[in-house]
Amino acid sequence: MENMFSSKKASFIPQPFLSLPKAQCGPKRLFIHPQQVDALTFYTLSDGQKRVYASIDALHGHGTNIILNPDEVSYMNLFINGILQSKQSYDVINGQLVIHTEDVPIKGTPIILQMLSIR
Q1: pTM of this structure
Q2: How many Cβ atoms sit within 10 Å of the Cβ of residue 78?
Q3: 3-state secondary structure at position 28
Q4: With a cut of 70, which residues of the chain have pLDDT below it?
């Protein structure tokens, strides 16, 4: 009895087609490093009455104790109770955060001002 895998029958099995793509030679691309980003964060808690917060209201031991001038940073984000607020709902003027929402945040609500500087 002849073996199934004899060389006679194996010759009818087509060989796989192997092809390797050729890399094109072209201009070399330079790798651009990402820009340096500094993030400062001002943390405070709502007292249930105020709409204006300053450096004196900062939670010590958390983030920074200052509110930077908007001209000194690239972006600012305000989070009230973890929710990102639209730019129309607040202003930062002369080191103060002014909230323009219809309601004042409930007492104890965390207020976080994120200040990002891209160099």
Answers
A1: 0.69
A2: 20
A3: coil
A4: 1-11
